[in-house]
Amino acid sequence: MSERQPEDSHHITRQCSKIKCDGKRILPDFFKLRPEDNGKLSCNWCEYHVCNKPEWNLYSNCDMRKVLQDIEKKRKVGKSQFLPILQIKTIKDIFDRYGHSIRVVHMGEDSSYSHMLGIPDFFESPDDLHRLQEIVDEITKTCEIYSVQDIRGNKA
Q1: Which residues contact 1 (CB under 8 A, 6 or more apart)?
Q2: pLDDT of residue 53
């Protein structure tokens, strides 16, 4: 499996249930690492699927329907879930201001599947959780949040 880093101007998304995103903002659990994650937070690279049909694009020139299909290959996606779209450079800059260097790595050649690396485990102490809330608040101001239902309904 080849690895490459998407451009900083590109975007990523993560499938989010209501404990990770309430539809208006992302929540701290968006960045919660599980033991089985081994320090890698799964995400999907939006620009991996380019689409030149504006009527199919909810965001930039990304075919979010295809990104959603990639996510659905790995897990069940409910219609009440969300896909926040975050610019890589913005995430990196915000985490950097809090002393954390993160990067995004694309994990394959046949899908948009990627990882965010360098995300610390913020759930160990109240101080860390407070810092995570500040990071999440900053990132929320810069992201677009789409419902899965909107993406599925966006057909030409």
Answers
A1: 107, 108, 109
A2: 54
Residue 3 lies in a domain: no
Is the pLDDT confidence value at 99 over 90? yes
Mean pLDDT, the chain, rounded, equals 85
Give the number of domains in the chain: 1
Is 6 part of any domain? no
Residue 128 has pLDDT above 60, yes or no: yes
Return the structure tokens found at 102.
Answer: 């993160």
User: Which domain covers residue 132, as residue numbers?
Assistant: 11-153
Beta strands 82-87 and 144-147: pairing type? antiparallel
∠ CA 132-45-42, nearest 5°, is 50
Q: Tell me the whole-structure pTM to 2 decimals.
A: 0.86
b/e per residue, 5-22, with b = 16+ CB within 10 A? ebeeebbbbbbbeeebbe
